[in-house]
Amino acid sequence: MPRPEMIRWSEDGAAVELLDPRSLPETPSQLRLESAAEVAQLLRARGVVGQGLREVAAALGFAVELARHRQLAQTAFRHKLEEGYEVLRQTQPGDPGLFRTLERLRRTATRLRGEAPAAVADAVRGEASAVLEEAGAAGRRLGEHGLELLGRRATVLVHGRGWELTDALAPLFAAHDAGRRIRVFVTEGRPTLTGSRVSAWELQRGGVPVAVVTDAAAGLLMAQRRVELVLLGARHVALNGDVAAPIGAYTLAVLAAHHGIPAYAAAPAAAVDPQYATGAALPLGTCEPKQVRRGFGRATAPDSVPVFPPALDVTAAGMLAGLITDRGLFRPPRDAAPAALAGAEPPGRE
Amino acid sequence: MPRPEMIRWSEDGAAVELLDPRSLPETPSQLRLESAAEVAQLLRARGVVGQGLREVAAALGFAVELARHRQLAQTAFRHKLEEGYEVLRQTQPGDPGLFRTLERLRRTATRLRGEAPAAVADAVRGEASAVLEEAGAAGRRLGEHGLELLGRRATVLVHGRGWELTDALAPLFAAHDAGRRIRVFVTEGRPTLTGSRVSAWELQRGGVPVAVVTDAAAGLLMAQRRVELVLLGARHVALNGDVAAPIGAYTLAVLAAHHGIPAYAAAPAAAVDPQYATGAALPLGTCEPKQVRRGFGRATAPDSVPVFPPALDVTAAGMLAGLITDRGLFRPPRDAAPAALAGAEPPGRE
Prior knowledge:
Low-confidence stretches of chain A: none
Order of helices and strands of chain A: EEEHHHHHEHEHEHEEEHEHEEE
Number of helices of chain A: 10
Radius of gyration of chain A: 20 Å
Oligomer: homodimer
Strand order of the largest sheet of chain A: 6-5-4-7-10-12-13
Distance between the termini of chain A: 28 Å
Number of strands of chain A: 13
Largest sheet of chain A: 7 strands, mixed
Shape of chain A: globular
Helix content of chain A: 25-40%
Mean pLDDT of chain A: 93
């Protein structure tokens, strides 16, 4: 079974359809987003849509916005184009990936300056479709590169997404599609529960045998030799190969090292950030204390109790067996540090 | 501030008052239990009341039951006594601690055979009060023994209760009462969330500075050198000092060893079980998959997804810096293995 689609064009082509992660796993439902403003609103809902998906959603949202205005006169259309660009850009002004994706679409429009708005809208839509397809292809490439780590049978513990579409689940779907007999344990991923809510649903929906394990149970799982490989979905990669990944990844890397189990990080080449020579300064972000204190609706901690806030933790390259990217598998010391990938365009920009 | 009372006699003396752990932290409320049957019903609600508290609750419940029947004639009274004994015993037929506690009260009644039922009921009540007081005293002793591990200032990560009343929180309350400046991080303790729901509430209520940390974040906490000592509340102790503790304890022990931070287990001497020479066969129990899939009403994992079920994990004595009990601190190799404590009576039975 193929991997479930997280994002796509609506059948009538007038909207972006996005699987609402907040609806998982209980009542999986598609959001229908019909304007840049609607997409932007979703992107601003903190933590709802992850890194890779965010860029694709912005691209599709921008194209949908231009299509809405295809009947306008040139000047009015250009005005709407700039407005749509800004509203999407402002959802995360400091994000280079989002900036590059939106710039790519705007350049397409700029090249057609003078053409009828309808033609410009169609061209931008074509470019947005390319962004969508390329992200899917990058995910499949990451999956293929990860495949060589898995035998005909394998039991894998996976933690964190980092990037959606090009993430740590990709090698699992690739292995499943290749007929390998794999079994997957997925960590809950407190406090967001992305593992049990989203990844477990996605793997199950895709036909991959999966069980959920609480984050704290990973030690016992390894002590009982129930996993052969650990996959960590990374958010940021430093030039030396250190990674920042959803909190708990470092704990799993220490456990894996203690038990002699190889742990690999997975991230697209675009996650290698030339700003960071090592992991020491990689941003750890913050989770919402509410996710810890009443993440399930009911209070699960006193409302006034402080919460240790980081959303990510850092794992040194030396703790990892390697890094799986859409541009290849990096295994130190055999391979160069992922610095070779620094400044890579987002997936699909090759 | 003293430690909050988890269990006590009601003011009118006719009932057991027990802080309902299910009500924490949102609306702390006392359960008023007026018969052996009511206490038994609570004890049968799986996982609601922990080991140490269970024995004390059974003792108080037995005494309350006899008081209800103090006006009966001898034969009818003896019949009620046996009935009450059985209903409480059957809540956990294989538990030696519960058996010993109930036997202790029944022996008190047997010694007074021939006396008026009212006199027997009063004597059993006195013995139950002794059980309650001794459990509190054992907790305080465990606290005192743990105190020597803490400096004038200390930052401690605590995980798991294992036993209530004589548990890993005791050294923290002892240190706080002794005027030490301690700060505590408490793990959430998925899937039961006993750490964030109960321990965090209890520490905060007792005036101990506390913050909650998700289980998976413990690695980062240690990498950032934010904790100096790890305390693990153990449920069972093997003769060689291996411990079974709420799941995640082993993960924390591995992390602590990796970071050179001492990790101690805490449990009453009564937790040393002579059935088990080492930790290899210690029972791991099972959690309820529902606590993982929809612990708080909302679904947090697909309903059909399998869940890795152990409720406890085992940490080898060699991974621990020592074991804190109500009968002393055991630090191998300086001290003998806790086998010396094997077969110890429940706390307070000295």
